[in-house]
Amino acid sequence: MAEEPPIANVPAHVAIIMDGNGRWASRRGLPRAAGHRAGTQNIRPLLEAAAEFGVQYLTIWAFSTENWVRPKEEVGALMRLLLESLDRWLPELHEKGVRLLHIGNLDRLPLGLQDRIRQAIELTHSNNRITLTVAFDYGGRDELVRAVRRLIADGVQSADVTEDLIGSYLDTADLPEPDLVIRTANEFRTSNFMIWETAYSEYYISPVLWPDFDRAELYRALSDYSHRERRFGGLRPVSTSPHRQQ
Ligand code: IPE
Ligand code: IPE
Ligand code: MG
Q1: N or C: which end of the chain has fewer CB within 10 A?
Q2: CATH class of 13-140+178-226
Q3: Is 23 touching ligand 1 by the criterion CB < 6 Å?
Q4: Please, is 94 exposed, middle or buried when counting C-beta atoms within 10 Å of its C-beta (0-12, 13-18, 19+)?
Q5: What is the DSSP letter of 232?
Q6: CA angle (36, 41, 140) in 5-degree steps
């Protein structure tokens, strides 16, 4: 269990933009894929630490809709790493009570990977220790475009369009909005991550490259969050968002 002093106000939903794998590798004279491998290996201990700190939802962004423009070999390596990780770690994750979800496009991924992701979601659907959502082939604009298309296909009338209705058409419909977004590797941008859902999220930018982002650094981010005042447009800090939570 955690040996650090407990954090008073732990965010229910933490989303991480896992950045810096490539830099981690090139600083060591290694190919970029080695950075992605190291980054992937870092997910398990971080998930465990998040669960121990009391985080209920952890979302990790592993592949963006824009990442398809990278060299074919790198894209292939990222697909293989997700498949390998699911093959290797799914039984343990399931045993530890982790519920797995996916956001983004499934249908553009290799068929074997699509199947594996569906099986993982199905297997773990009634687990409740922590929800791990893997954002893979995910982009915020793409998510909105797909939501609008489905909304139109359902014949929704313009007068019925509300913020809640749009939220219910997003990939994240079953998730609360992120309380805290962590971006590693010192980049100060969203790169098209959850552009709807993070309207009132707190941001924490860490200089640490994702493969080196450890429990102590997560603790630092959560402690920092616990001192933030969230006002949601009002004059006083409020503890829970008045906006759509689920
Ligand atoms: C993040 O690491 C992982 C993905 C975007 C797939 P990067 O590959 O972007 O690493 P840097 O930014 O080049 O260091
Ligand atoms: C964002 O990182 C995507 C993921 C972490 C999966 P990028 O490295 O792709 O973002 P940019 O291109 O630097 O904005
Ligand atoms: Mg990057």
Answers
A1: N
A2: alpha beta
A3: yes
A4: middle
A5: T
A6: 60
Of 130, 128, 119, 117, the residue nearest 47 (C-alpha)? 130
Q: Tell me the pTM.
A: 0.97
**Cβ contact 193:173 at 8 Å:** no
For 98-157, how does the pLDDT look when each residue is reduced to its tens digit (9 = 90+)?
A: 999 999 999 999 999 999 999 999 999 999 999 999 999 999 999 999 999 999 999 999
- Report the 10 Å Cβ neighbour count for 28: 12
Residue found by looking up tokens 């909105």 in the block: 144
Rg (CA), the chain: 18
- Which residues have a catalytic role annotated? 19, 67
- Spacing, Cα 99 to ligand 1 middle (Å): 26
Sequence-separated (6 or more) residues with CB below 8 Å from residue 233: none
Ligand 2: which atom is nearest the Cα of residue 189?
Answer: 14
- Cα separation, 219 vs 49, in Å, equals 9
Distance CA 30, CA 54 (A): 35
- What per-residue confidence (pLDDT) applies to 3? 77
CA of 70 to the centre of ligand 2 (A): 11
